[in-house]
TrEMBL record:
This is 4-hydroxyphenylacetate 3-hydroxylase family protein. It comes from the Bacteria. Pfam families: HpaB, HpaB_N. Keywords: FAD, Flavoprotein, Oxidoreductase. It comes from Tissierella simiarum. The lineage of its organism: Bacteria, Bacillati, Bacillota, Tissierellia, Tissierellales. Residues 5-275 form the HpaB/PvcC/4-BUDH N-terminal domain. Residues 282-481 form the HpaB/PvcC/4-BUDH C-terminal domain.
Length: 488
């Protein structure tokens, strides 16, 4: 069975024995928890759309490992067409959820681990690539959700993993046994971990020979003994706990989530290990994963941007300002910025190339340029959306007031916009804009645009490495007729 239904996915999550803490308490039933459920619904949409004939082309693919039809969120890219379809799929998912749908991290981890393990095996005669292929064949056949865990807490950023006062600040091997390894540490900012069946762990930075115990990559089920998660807070998150909450949520059905995940002496069997002490390959794995995830943002954020642009246009219509020239111009600017991000996602995909293992990788320079733009443009799009929404977005009363028999009629009367549009609908669209720009989805649309897949400086380092300034100097010399430099 390669494609699960949405219902089968939800049932499969119920079988996991996850340890999730929120507000200092262990959660008994994460699947039905009102604060977690919208994020689960976002992942479930990856299953739902894959079953719809009109989305089959984008949402599914044929596995290079077993020849079966699989969800594209588990695909090992076989061409630049696959890379472009990935971005298009993410844009579609962003349009349908207006939130982070979480499943891309495992996809990006898988493609990075697939190609890197091939190269490690060639250099060291290890068996990591076969380990990974066997593991990923299982993931594809079971249609599972996999979290990709990269970011360590990192402690003192000026020190390498082995120099930290507390060696656990980077996840590490604490014991080597004949049948496997025992690891200890934590991974921060773990997108979608509570909705995942499995987790692929990777190192977070390049390593030196003395960092051998920290150069480790592996996969385990998310309910493995020793793993527990601490659920991250999001702006306005407790609104979801309010009885009957709907309008005030802005996006009642969908959301994302982040967790701090602790690995408290977790055993990993040998056949689930993909890197174990080969420090010289840690950097390659990080660079490739980051590259794929920087490409991803040229799809997912664009899809959410589409919803935000639509919401801003609706808000202007409901205010009676839809035909004003400055409103039209702001919508043009938002569209221009959003499509620029999409251009970057498509460009780094189109310029992709095969790795030694045969899967396809994005153009790293262009993927980093993509993500660098993502650290900026969603903020400007959000600013323009707030401009068009007007101040009412942050001053209007709650839905309980709107529904109150005594106060409600006053709100209905005085917060009315154009004739023919209910005050409730006006409030709904403003709450949606609030959700994306300031509320729970702002975690994904704004701050994650800044820090997700690496903070802006990380992309600038890669851009400086890949930018090839010396070749550009040669171009300039050629045109300017500079044959020999004076000081030579
Ligand atoms: Fe996918 Fe975007 Fe969420 Fe990353 S931020 S997991 S790319 S939806
Ligand atoms: Fe992310």
């Amino acid at each position: 069975m390669a494609l699960k239904t949405k219902e089968q996915y939800i049932e499969s999550l119920r079988k996991l024995n996850l340890k999730v803490y929120m507000f200092g308490e262990l959660i008994e039933n994460p699947v039905d928890h009102p604060m977690i459920r919208p994020s689960l619904n976002s992942v479930a949409m990856t299953y739902e759309l894959a079953k719809q004939p009109e989305h089959e082309e984008l949402m599914t693919s044929t596995s290079n490992l077993n020849g079966e039809q699989i969800n594209r969120f588990t695909h090992i890219h076989q061409s630049t067409d696959d890379l472009r379809k990935k971005v298009k799929m993410q844009r579609l998912m962003g349009q349908k959820t207006a939130a982070c749908f979480q499943r891309c991290v495992g996809l990006d981890a898988a493609n990075a681990v697939y190609s890197t393990t091939y190269e490690i095996d060639k250099a060291y005669g290890t068996n990591y690539h076969e380990n990974f292929k066997k593991y990923w064949d299982y993931i594809q056949k079971e249609d599972l959700v996999v979290d990709g865990a990269m970011t360590d807490p990192k402690g003192d950023r000026g020190l390498s993993p082995s120099q930290q006062a507390d060696p656990d600040l980077y996840l590490r091997v604490v014991e080597r046994r004949p049948d496997g390894i025992v690891v200890r540490g934590a991974k921060a900012h773990q997108t979608g971990m509570v909705n995942s069946h499995e987790v692929i762990v990777m190192p977070t930075i390049s390593m030196r020979p003395e960092d051998k115990d920290w150069a480790v990559s592996f996969a385990v089920p998310t309910d493995t003994d020793g793993i527990f998660m601490i659920y991250g807070r999001q702006s306005c998150d407790t609104r979801k706990l309010e009885e009957g909450a709907d309008i005030d949520l802005g996006n009642k059905n969908f959301g994302g989530h982040e967790t701090l995940v602790i690995f408290d002496d977790v055993f990993v069997p040998n056949d689930r290990i993909f890197l174990n002490g080969e420090t010289d390959f840690a950097g390659m794995l990080v660079e490739r994963f980051a590259g794929y995830h920087r490409q991803s943002y040229g799809g997912c954020k664009v899809g959410v941007g589409d919803v935000l642009i639509g919401a801003a246009a609706l808000a202007a219509d409901y205010n009676g300002a839809g035909k004003a020239s400055h409103v039209k111009d702001k919508l043009i600017e938002m569209t221009h910025l959003n499509e620029t991000l999409y251009c970057c996602g498509m460009a780094c995909s189109s310029e992709g190339c095969p790795t030694a293992s045969g899967n396809y990788q994005i153009d790293l320079l262009l993927a980093n340029v993509c993500k660098q733009n993502v650290t900026r443009y969603p903020y400007e799009i959000a600013r323009l959306a707030e401009d068009l929404a007007g101040g009412l977005m942050v001053t209007m009363p709650s839905e309980k007031d709107l529904k109150d028999p005594k106060i409600g009629p006053y709100i209905e009367k005085y917060l009315k916009g154009v004739d023919g549009v209910s005050t409730e609908n006006r409030m709904r669209v403003l709450r949606l804009i609030e959700n994306i720009t300031l509320g729970t989805a702002a975690v994904g649309y704004r701050t994650e645009s800044m820090h997700g897949a690496g903070s802006p400086q990380a992309q600038r380092i890669m851009i400086s490495r890949q930018g090839n300034i010396s070749a550009k100097k040669e171009l300039a010399k050629e045109i300017a007729g500079i044959k020999e430099e004076q000081n030579k």
